[in-house]
Every structure is written in C-alpha cells, then in structure tokens.
Design brief:
By secondary structure, the chain is mainly α. It has 19 helices and no strands.
C-alpha cells in the first residue's frame, strides 16, 4: 500500500479549453497524469510526443513540457536547457494567463499554480472544479491536518472531512487520482469512517483507469485477504501489472513475491532486479531490500560493502530497518570497521525513527543526528 500523495502535476484537459489536436491533448493528459500517479513508463512515452509538439511551436505543449522539464525522471532526449525552458514559458504564459483571468478557466489557473507553486491559484482552480486541483488541494490540507501539531483535534477532524470532500468530488468526475485518494481515505479513516470495502471499490475503479498505485493496492488486498479471499497468485498478478507500468511500489511488492515464491515461481535474480528498479526510483524500502540481496548473496553476488552503501541510502530517507541493518554491520564489522559505539548510535536512530522520543532525545543530547 502507499500513502496519499500530492497530485500537483496532473491535469485533465478539456477539448474546448485549447485549440489542439485530439492526439496531442491526449498526450498531455498522459504525461502529467502518469507523472502524478507513479507511472514513469507512460510518462516517458507521452513526454516524447509533447516535446515534439512543443518544438513545433505549440504554446500549450511548450508550457507543459517546461513545467516538467526539471523532473529527474524526464527522458534525457526531452529535457530542456534553462534557456529553452525560460523561452517556452515566456512565449506561452500570456495565453495561459489570459484564459485564467478573462475566461475564469480553472485549468489555466491550475497550470499557473504549477509554475509558481501558488496556492491561491491552486485554490481558484479547485473551486472551479479542476479535478487535479481538487486532488492537490485535498492532499495539501489533509497533510497539514495530520502533521501540524498546532492544530487542535476538532479542527483536524473538520479539515479531514473537507479533504475527503475534495477527493470525492474529483472521483465523481471520473478522475483516477480522485478514486485513488478517496480509497486511501476510506482505508485509513481520513474524514470518514474506515471502510475497506469502499476503499477496495475505489481502488478497483482507479485500477480500471490504469492507475498503477491503485493496481498495486488491489494486489495488497489479495495478498492480505482484506475484503476479498486471500489469493497470493492473484495478488502477484496485480503487483506485476503495476511493476510493468514502472511503479516503484508495484516493483517492490512484485520483487518480494518473486523472492519468496508467493503466487509465482521463486526467482531471486529477478527479484533483485525489481528491488534495484524500485530503489533507483528512490523507494527507501526497496533500497534496504536491495542491500540485503548483496548482504546475503541472494539474487546478487555477495558484496557487504555494496550492501552497506544501499543501507545508508535507505537510512538517509528515514527507513528504520536500514538503520537496524547498519547497526548490525557495525556490531559485526561487516562492510565497515567494527565499532560498537557506532552500532549503538544506529540502533538508537532506528528507535527514534519509529517514534521513540527518548531515543531522539538521547541522540540530541549526545550530538548525533537523527539519520
């Protein structure tokens, strides 16, 4: 499963909003929606089309490709220099702004919010019914409510209910990201009563629309026997489908299935490849799991130095098991010098990362960072 994520880079284009060819507008939808939904393969495929149209002088495509040009996952052949990015934005911005200010176009306000990271523009887009602005605004308010300790409990509840409403509105417009976010609310009880049945239905609707993280979550329901009868073979098929879309969580779960032989023939080498793919996308759990492949020699040639390197990458992102693994490496002198004091520090860091306030205080008092 995965947490709710901020969909600040997905957009649903209206054919009436801009005078573009149907195929070109469709590519923009795929580019921005797949980037938000965790589908790098679809993102790369669509980026090539949008970049080509941008080079041909189409202002909407220029604005959109410029907005995503600094994304590290953008294919090298479609990236823009700083000068070209500025040129594209300068050439197209006035057209987008005119639509927003003179026509009140919600999509245009949303695009402008992406460029400036302007929450006022984003709110105007959400109030205008732009589905991706609804998702983004709902996620921002939900995250603030969950993580700001200065908000009292009653206010948190009110904010979560409003966030749930934004996601529900997006889902009622048929948006895949809306279905996914609404499912996460039902799964966790954010702004609603927990209801795994409704969560499953939302994820199923998102999966039918090709949302890779909704697809992954369906696999989780079958793996864990939530709502549906436990079926590891079915779960693995869903994980594989998500992984084939390039989703890091799908790759991670498919790798675990391959490594353990759950619902599929055991294949440690393939599992290691999947862990690596997810790790290279920045997934902390996959980094730790890939490190274990090197540590144990399961699916990769044993190399404790390489294992420690991946444990460090994972620990730097705050993943507690990676901190535990580093502690063990220092305790045993595996891949690093043997150092019981350093082993203790990493053990305490793992405790702090799990929420132990005493452990966090000990690190601070002794001059150690949390990671």
């Amino acid at each position: 499963m995965k947490r709710i994520v901020v969909f600040l880079t997905a957009v649903l284009l209206s054919a009436a909003a801009f005078a573009d060819a149907k195929g070109s507008s469709s590519a923009i939808v795929r580019l921005l929606n797949s980037r938000a939904a965790g589908s790098p393969k679809a993102f790369a495929d669509a980026a090539a089309i949008v970049a080509k149209d941008a080079a041909a002088g189409r202002p909407l495509q220029q604005f959109v490709i410029a907005l995503v040009s600094e994304d590290p996952t953008l294919p090298a052949e479609t990236r823009l220099s700083a000068e070209m990015r500025k040129s594209y934005l300068d050439q197209s911005r006035d057209k987008i702004r005119s639509l927003a200010e003179t026509k009140g176009n919600a999509l245009a306000w949303y695009l402008l919010s992406l460029e400036k990271n302007d929450l006022k523009y984003l709110k105007r887009a959400a109030d205008g019914g732009n589905v991706q602005a609804l998702n983004a605004w709902g996620t921002i308010t939900l995250t603030e409510a969950l993580h700001n300790p200065n908000i009292d409990t009653n206010e948190v509840d009110n904010i979560l209910v409003k966030s749930f409403g934004y996601f529900k509105q997006a889902s009622e417009l048929g948006d895949a990201n809306g279905f996914y976010n609404l499912g996460m609310c039902y799964l966790n009880g954010y702004g609603c009563v927990k209801d795994p049945d409704l969560a499953f239905n939302c994820f199923r609707s998102g999966a039918q629309a090709g949302h890779p993280e909704a697809i992954n979550n369906i696999g989780g329901f079958y793996r864990d026997g939530i709502v549906v009868e436990k079926n590891l073979e079915m779960a693995t098929k869903w994980f594989q489908k998500s992984s084939e879309l390039g989703n890091a969580y799908g790759q991670l779960n498919y790798a675990y299935a391959l490594q353990r032989g759950e619902g599929v023939r055991k294949d440690s080498d393939r599992a290691a490849e999947m862990f690596k793919a997810a790790a290279e996308q920045g997934n902390a759990e996959a980094m730790n799991a890939y490190g274990m492949c090197f540590f144990t020699g399961d699916g990769a040639k044993q190399d404790v130095g390489m294992a420690v390197s991946w444990f460090r990458h994972s620990a730097a992102l705050g993943f507690p098991p990676a901190m535990d693994n580093l502690s063990s490496c220092y305790e045993l002198g595996k891949g690093v010098r043997k150092d019981s004091a350093e082993a203790t520090v990493w053990k305490v860091r793992g405790m702090a990362a799990r929420g132990d306030r005493n452990a966090a205080a000990w690190l601070s008092q002794n001059g150690h960072s949390l990671r």
